[in-house]
Transporter (Falsiruegeria litorea), 314 residues
Amino acid sequence: MKQTSFLVKLRKLRVLLGLSLMAVHSHTPVYAGEGAFSNYFPGAYGSLLPGMAPEPGYVFANVNLLYSGKANRAVSEGKINTSMESKAFYALFQGLHVWDAPALGGRFAVGGYLPLGYASYSSSVGGFSRSQDEFAFGDMGIIPASFYWSSGNFHSNLYGLIIAPTGEYDTGNLVNIGRNYWSLDLVAAMTWFNPDSGTEFSVVPGLMFNTENPDTNYRTGTEFHMDFMFNQFLSEDLALGIHGYAYKQLTGDSGSGALLGDFKGEALGIGPAISWIPKSAGGSIALSASWVHDVHSKNRLSGDYGALSFSIQF
């Protein structure tokens, strides 16, 4: 590999595949976190080089998410549900602008996304089975500030993500695409990448703070989450990886709507990933796919998370 051209290509690729950092948050309503879930989507905070500074310009991306999970019980829409099953598909439309001028010694970017989703849900309440599905817009996300720094093979990114309750929500529904509360996620991505060997190790820890759902008086506790990834380039166009996540609630759920009490969730997942950058597009187009399976889950939906993304930079 020619190191200089390879790094330039990867910086462009970082913009493309790294957009999933700000966008892939599930809104499936389903223990800990209202509905045994939250605005954090496991394994979604980047697929390749999440800490590397991107190239300046505009980027647009489409990230498609698939989810299937189960939980024994949880509070959903103000009722205690048992034998819960949920499936969902989300298409997220994202934009990012990266400035060339340095900021705080690094590179600066802002962005946002809007999700369109379909979800189905079934459970039992008081011994009676019920089910429903919905197709609607979800909660939008905004990144008002994102900073990148690099030093040799080490790269870092610090940003804040605001998730606004703009999605479809009705307490009379069994399933809602929106979650009806605000979240603030403070995230730091750290990457070590050797361009000579094409080897990458990255960790992306974050701390998510949530407001109360005003319609259910349920407040999901403060959440710590960390995505991690190992990727190995087999060529300048193809990389294979192992990705995963760790999740733990630092404070329990609260509010009069938390009928199951002060529960705290935790989970761990891992799975394979692949990234492809067609030579014919000169690094401006990227495709990636990943699958993460829960190997441990407590007081939270347990299942599988899949992602397929297509991105282009102008």
The CA atoms of residues 121 and 288 lie 28 Å apart. The first helix runs from residue 3 to 18. The chain is about 5% helix and 55% strand. The longest strand covers residues 57-76.
